[in-house]
Amino acid sequence: MVSIMKSLTQFAGTCLTLTLALAFYSSFTHASDEPIIEERTEVSEVLVPLSAKEIEKHKAGPKRGASMKQVEAKYGKAIKVHPTKGKPPITRWDYPEFSVYFESNSVIHTVSRSN
Question: Tens digits of per-residue pLDDT, 8-56?
Fold first, then answer.
């Protein structure tokens, strides 16, 4: 019984190998048996380091919607707080790298400062 099972297993393996070989071959031929010319293109990711100036330019400032408390907790006290103006009230806080504009209590815009 064991030898019959071994023979069946070998036969099944041979059939599977033959089936895969035929499928592979047929994927490279047309119905007219002319070979298919297959063109492949490889895509690679290239990482380019940023200069110090570009890194400074892309520094993350406070995101839109952050509260005054969240900004102060993350970036510390501003070097200058401008008086609130207008309705709705707009306030500007200046930091060394950026200025933050608030409407009421929420960030509406962050602007990088040139040194």
Answer: 345 444 443 444 444 445 555 555 566 666 667 777 777 777 666 666 5
Residue 34 neighbours by CB distance under 10 Å: 9
Question: What are 70's two structure tokens?
Answer: 């969240």
Contact by Cβ (8 Å): 111, 60:
no
Radius of gyration for the chain, computed over Cα atoms and rounded to the nearest angstrom: 34
Find out whether 68 and 105 touch, Cβ atoms under 8 Å.
yes
Q: For residue 21, what are the CA distances in angstroms to 12, 17, 24, 27, 30?
A: 14, 6, 5, 10, 16
Domain containing 2: what range? Answer: 1-40
Do 62 and 96 share a domain, yes or no?
A: yes
